[in-house]
Amino acid sequence: MILLPEIYNMICKKSSLDFESSRDYETLLFLIKDQTGRSLGLNTIKRLFCVLSEKVNPSPNTVNVVALYLGFDSWSLLLESLHEDLPDEDAIFPETLASGTHVILRYKPDRTLELEILPNKRCRVINVNKGSLRKDDILHIDRFQLDHPLDSDSLVRDGKPLGPYLSALDGGISQIEIIPHRPHPALL
What we know:
This protein is 28% helix and 27% strand. It has helices at residues 5-15, 22-36, 42-48, 60-69, 75-84; strands at 91-92, 102-107, 111-117, 122-128, 138-141, 144-145, 150-157, 160-167, 173-179. The longest helix has 15 residues, at 22-36.
């Protein structure tokens, strides 16, 4: 996972660090522990900042500690605050789409993700060509917006919550295609 640029900037501003040396990450760990009373590992922080190339989704605890450091009660509240600054006229909100509608998202590098809209801002993965998502994963998504990352405050796989999910970080979503739900002809 890569931190959203807005979250990265918030951390830089709050910590007064530029993250150009390894010592900056160690200092951030101290600041997080001092302010939140919670500890994170050095490699965990480096993965968040993409200093380590390992592709591991952070645990809910990790992102919640980052949110606490930034003054939010939870990761989902931090993400909601970022959404408040986005213009609504460019966004597509899952709750405004009929259940059964399919949404196809395209983003770098060469990713295509097809989702089925479910009730309560949930989306089920129908098809994915690459990446860590799997068919039938369930994402809780507030909005789809061109040129912005896809973020979900929860990913559920096989009935088990895996925490937040973030993708399309390299330039955001480049294309959104909406395929309206059409009942099967035999059901009409």
